[in-house]
Amino acid sequence: MKRTITFTSMATVFTMLFVLGTTEGLSQQRKPALKRKVVTKRVAPAPPVFTVASGTVIRTRMNRTLSSKTARVGEAFTVTVTEPVYSNNGVVVVPVGSTLQGRVNSVRAAANRGKPGEIDVSFTRVRLPNGSSRAINGSLTELNGGTDVDNEGTASGRPMKNRKAIFIGGGGVGGVILGAAVGGGKGALIGGLLGAGGGYLGDRMTKGAEAEVKSGTEFGVFLNQAIALPRFVESTGYRP
Q1: Which of 49, 108, 131, 146 has the fewest CB within 10 Å, making it most exposed?
Q2: 79 forms bridges with which residues in the sheet?
Q3: 237 with 132: CB under 8 angstroms?
């Protein structure tokens, strides 16, 4: 009788342990997972942008000398903006001291028969004093005779049609003048090239003048496409 009671007691104990273990396991399974707190960072909205119209002429100054004798295709150079550029509604977006990045597209050294040197350039980017920048599509243009300036100081180029201005040796400010090639042909010349170099054209052995754009030479950059920029501020965390 005692042995039967002992076995029964042991069976009861094992049954209770089993039930307790199962209950504990179920309670652990049913315990809800802790939710992780998601921290969202607030992103500052991008500042509003203002448009500078196609055809605007940016007044610039050459930062180093560029010569048709030594220049190479793909060579980079910079010019400094000398007057502020305004948006269509009068907001300053490109201040004085900004730089434009230029590129030599083609170059031809001076040759016999009085052929002057030529440098064809384009402008690909504007960089502001606060470090922000934008890609641009700009071409060389003259400052006098080909631009109109409004009462806000913005210079706008007159329609260029198929003209493309290039640096040509033979005279003018800084030893260079602008030439306009019409439709990629010989074109007409702006300024006094024929007067300065015309006397050499009949001499086979006389070499023409190199196109030398000296540091400090001033000229215009014609915007072929409109650009959009925020209002200029001295320092900003916005980096386009």
Answers
A1: 131
A2: 62, 100
A3: no
